[in-house]
Amino acid sequence: MKKILSISLLCGVALAFTGCVHEEDDIFDKSAAERLNEAKDVYFSRLTDSEAGWAMEYYPTNGDEAPQGAGYLMLADFNKDNSVKVGMRNSMTGNNYLEDTSVWEVITDNGPVLSFSTYNNCVHLFSDPGIYETGLGYEGDYEFVIVDMEQGAQQGFIKGKKRGTYVRLTRLPEQTDFQEYIDDVQSFQNKIFSASAPNLDYIHYGTDSLMVLAEGSTGIPNIYPYGKDAIAFESYHPYLIIKKDDQYYLRFKNVLTTNSDDVAVQEFKYDADQDKFFSVEDQSFYIEGENPGRFLNEKLTGPASAQWQFNRTSDKSSSMQELYDKVYNDFQTIEYTVENMTFIKTDDANALRITCSYMRRQGTRYVKQTVSYIYKYNVSYDGEHVVFNYIAPEEGASETAAATFSSIPALVNALSRTYAVDAETSKFNLGKVKMSAADDASFWLAITLI
Q: What is the pLDDT of residue 402?
């Protein structure tokens, strides 16, 4: 009897437990398919939420070599009728602006995926196998897993479905004109990272180390420790520049480094007043160009030959222009034309070279000839200023045939002074610098490296 009661009690407990299990709510009140469809609608709405569209920092692959590893800026405007307008201007388009409209959608594939579902002449170029000599094309994606796209967010992230390359989307201001935006960004980039810039740039890693940034104009600069060999320590880091809130931002494809708090340093904001890019994560990390005074001195006194030229139409102060014009007019009296003046390095000193032209008769015709006059200077750098000291010729010696012009000694002596040296446009490109007299800032001239 006791056994029967025990068995009955156990059965009752089991039935009660079973009843409780069946009374629990399901963990998900909707199926996976329903949830994916809802997510699809949500991200469709968020992508179309930006009236002007998005700036896409597109990288075909995770490599760091051109062209597949380079970055390409595209602008995309996703519309609710499933049309998308994309614009770009880069090496793929012969540096001409290209714009195309195609179909887009958000599909479900183990998660929401942004798909450019019909051929777009901008996006699909990067996945066209015939576009590049390897037969693989640029190996880029046209479908992207949506990684992060919050409602009303200023930026989001998508990831190439095949290559796994991250693409940042940044909301564009209302009424953005695609071509004007791209032209503006490229104009800024070309000014800062000019292919003709003669100087290197530098990245300060806090107060601990200094890195050289070389070949910035390629979009894939070589970044290596200052004082080290550029090849032995080479490290290439693709980047793109965009504009938001009327400010320019440079963001590397991958994290550049981390600070002492293990915070990733990847994006830099340009400060026009200081002519530097400061890390948005830690302002002790920043990118800057060369010191203009130091650079000018190195080019004038270093082992490599360098020439800094100015002419009658170059930017200069009124007092400097007056001195120049007097020399120019004096040479006109003997039918010579002053073509330019150049600071050059000679065998034993630096010098100001005045180059003139004249017409010489040869037979029945006149041929243009040139002649130069040299005035020597000592050049030095005190860590802040560049100093020019004119070396007068020995007593009784005639420096040049043109020494009879009183205007020439006046010019030569006026140039013999201490100068503050500034970049004409940016320290990132010192192809042209401005020399201002330290004792009289109203006396100045701009000179160009040739």
A: 54
Q: What is the pLDDT of residues 375-423, one digit of tens each?
A: 999 999 999 999 999 998 865 555 665 556 889 999 999 999 999 999 9
Burial class (CB in 10 A: 0-12, 13-18, 19+), 305: exposed
CA distance 66 to 284: 30
Q: What are the tens digits of pLDDT across the range 8-64?
A: 444 444 444 444 445 555 555 677 667 777 889 999 999 999 999 999 999 999 999
Rounded to a whole number, what is the distance in angstroms from the first to the last CA of the chain? 113
CB distance 422 to 414 below 8 Å: no
The whole-angstrom separation of Cα 270 and Cα 291 is 18
Structure tokens at 21: 């299990």
3-state class (DSSP) for residue 34: helix
Angle at 166 between CA 165 and CA 167, to 5 degrees: 120
CA–CA distances in Å: residue 125 to residues 64, 208, 384, 410 = 19, 43, 51, 63
In sequence order, which residues have a C-beta less than 8 Å from that of residue 14 and are 6 or more positions away?
Answer: none
Query: Beta-carbon neighbour count of residue 244 at 10 Å?
Result: 15
Residue 85: both structure tokens together: 């307008």
Beta bridge partners of residue 75, listed in sequence order: 55, 87
Q: What is the pTM of this model?
A: 0.85
Rounded Cα gap, residues 409 and 326, in angstroms = 11
CA–CA separation, 17 and 221 (whole Å): 67
314 burial level (CB within 10 Å; 0-12, 13-18, 19+):
middle
Q: Which H or E run includes 182? A: helix 178-192
| Type of residue numbered 129 | P
Q: How confident is the model at residue 343 (pLDDT cuts 50, 70, 90)?
A: very high
Q: Widest CA span of the chain, in angstroms?
A: 144
Please, are residues 443 and 319 in contact by the beta-carbon 8 Å criterion?
A: yes
Alpha-carbon distance of 12 to 54, in angstroms, equals: 64
Which residue, chain included where needed, has tokens 């007593």?
Answer: 395
